[in-house]
Each structure stands twice: as structure tokens, then as C-alpha cells.
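Worked Example 4.2. Consider the chain below.
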Amino acid sequence: MERRNAWLSYKEADENEMEKLNRAYREFLNKGKTERECVTEIVKQAEAAGYEALEAKIARGDKIQAGDKVYAVGMKKIVALFHVGTEELSKGMSILCAHIDSPRLDIKQNPLYEDTDLAYLDTHYYGGVKKYQWVTLPLAMHGVVVKKDGSVVDISIGEDEDDPVLYITDLLIHLAGKQLQKKAAEVIEGESLDILIGSRPLDDLPDDKKKEAVKQNVLKILNAKYGIEEEDFLSAELEIVPAGKARECGLDRSMIAAYGQDDRVCAYTSLAAMLEMNETPKRTGCCLLVDKEEIGSVGATGMQSRFFENSVAELLDGMGCYSELAVRRALRNSSMLSSDVSAGYDPAYSEAFEKKNAAYLGRGIVLNKFTGARGKSGSNDANAEYVARVRKIFDDHDVAFQTAELGKVDFGGGGTIAYIAALYGMEVIDSGVAVLSMHSPWEVTSKADVYEAYKAYKAFLLEA
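Applying the procedure from the previous section yields the following C-alpha cells:
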């Protein structure tokens, strides 16, 4: 069933609210290009909205009760916000869950080297990327270096207009005949994604250092600006991302072009919906923003960790009603929107899509009953009763929505965190924004879809 373009229903007041939301969204993207940066900004906004650290509240011995707004953070990369409702937590929560990690290049632990008067940093790509998309772009470095004394140095190079940018070279077209015969997956190999960071040698070096004069100059600059030495790369988390701010896209300014919209477009709209829930809800609302989805939701900060389960246990304990059974019931009786993006239909690559079951830019938030690959492998498949409930919520609140699959059946596929949350027995469906050029350095979304996602998430928290 074809859905109407959301833009056609907007009045002036809607457009003003939509533009306000999208400006705030672009600012969020600019402030958070790494998971740590995202969590820092999320906590800042949450505290401004009256949220308090769950850990601090427990340490004081304060009892948690209806109306309280608390948050929990894990390793500075995963965060859960709770707005406690009047209903018993064991009866379940309304949960918005998105991920805040995005495909990128990570700096290796022993990265710095010099070759023929050029200095480089060695990288390891993170998540699913088309490697050829990452060459000949202005790049930035974000992250932290933790020194042996425990001090943390924040790194951000390439975003300020006065900053230098970083760069990955490619072979000139005049000599690329052999390269162009390769498969796209092999045109640029992973070990070739090395970051060019210097070409000026340092003078007056001892003989044993002269062969690495450019590298020594880079180390001198890093030491002067950040107080770090080469060995400090061993305990660093440095990410290479596209340099530059999120931009309006199209002559009509109807779209957003930016890095990391998978899945920060859903993370931000979920957060905005959560922070605007001012009245004490009947059912506890939750916004869970996780790490590591792009590599399988693994590790201590991924959805497969016990972070969320432990946070719910702490919340119940703070209410004075903890038991293992209460935790199980709270999780089982919850309803979740797995807020993750969908592949937007692209007429330039129409052969990859089945048009009746594709997501289109401008037609609202996308419901994916199932994801997975080919024969639904690795998928959560939402039950029909839950899909009907979500449909009703969206329709009752005038939310523009559409349904989709991730491309043609035999073309591939993908997954989200939905199947992991479903292991608790809770109801889960994927619900997010359509994206063009997903997993590329610069992704594109519709402003209208960003706005409709925000409306959908607000409605879900009220009614689920």
C-alpha cells in the first residue's frame, strides 16, 4: 500500500517545529562523532532536563519512586535513561533503543610509521564499509588517549576551520588501469587505508633518528599539543571520521547530509522524545542507547552485554522491590521499538529493491516487521498483534509511517539489536528512518522523516 509523502500534510506550524528539531539534530551530530562524545552530550542534555545519575541516587540511599528521572552510563559508551512511572516496573516498560556507534576507521595500537618521507597512521576499519569510499576525503580524528598515570587526553583534529585535515590517498587515474580491473571490494584493501599525517622532516636529529625525521616531527607536534608520546597510542581509542559539519542537502533544503546518521538519527529522535516527557507516565519510559551494533552488539557496551539488565535490577533495588523474578518480569512485559534505520529506495539502484516493500524518503518512519538476510536469517520477526498495536498508536497520533524490507530477498540483508531484546520475551519491532547511501562517509535522510520519527517515539512512550 503506497503511503503519502509526509511533506504534503504539513502546515506552517508543523514546518517550524520540524525545522527546529532538525537544527537541533544537526547540532547533535556535530557534537558527537564518537560514542564517547555522544554519551557526553546525551548526559548533558539529560541533566538539563532534570535527570540524575542512578548511581548517585543509590549512593545517597534515596528511594526511587514515580516521577523520578534517572540515567545509567557504562564505560562512557552506553547509556540508559528511565522516567519512572506510577505502574509497577514488573509490569514492563516502554523502551526506545537505538545505537550510537557508526562505521569508521580505528587507529591501531602501533600505528605510526614513515615511508619515503611521508608519515602515516595505520588503521583497522570498524563495521561494514565500502573501503573505496574512504579515500581522497578530508578526514578528522576524534577520541581519547589515556596515559599510564590515568590522565585522559581528549583528541579532536580536523573539525575546526583552522585545523588541518587528514587524508587517505588513491592511485591517479592515469596509472590505474590494473586497479580498475579489480572487484569493488578489492580496489582499496583494508591495509591500504593508512592516514597521511605528515611530510615535513625534523631537522638536527641524531643519526639513529634521521631515517624517521617526518615521524619524529609528528611526534613532536603531538607532544607539544597534547603531552603524549608514541607509547601512549597503546592505550588510545582514536577514530577516523569524515571531517565537516552536518549540512542541509538539496536546493529545497529538504534533506540532511552527514556522517553517522546510522543510527544517530534514531538515537537523537529517541532522546528528544524521552526528554520531552514531562508528566509522570503510567508506564516507565526508557531510552536505551547502545554501542557496538555495527560489529554484532558484542562487548561490555553492546546490547548483548548485561548492562541494561543490570540497570533494571539497580532500578528495582532502588525502589525497594528487587528480586530476580521482578527483573525477569520487567523485561518480559516490556515493549520496545528497536529504533534503527532502513535502506531508502534509491532510483539509481532500483534493481536492489522490491518497490512495494521498500522505504521511501519523505514518507515517514519505517516499520520493519523483520530484518535478517535472505531467509530471514538472524531476524527478530515481530508478532502480528504487536504490529497492529504500533500501527494504531501511530495512526492515533497522526504519525506518517510506512513498512519495508531491506532490499530484495536474495540481495543480502542486515540485522539490528531487535533479536537480542526479544530474547527476554518482550515485544520488539524495528522502527526507524530511511537512509540513502547507508554506511557511507556521508549519509542522507529526509527532514520530514526525522520529524515523523520524533513524533512516533513520543507517541510510543505515551501509549505503548
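The mean pLDDT is 95. DSSP finds eleven helices and 22 strands in the chain. Compare this with Example 4.1 before moving on.
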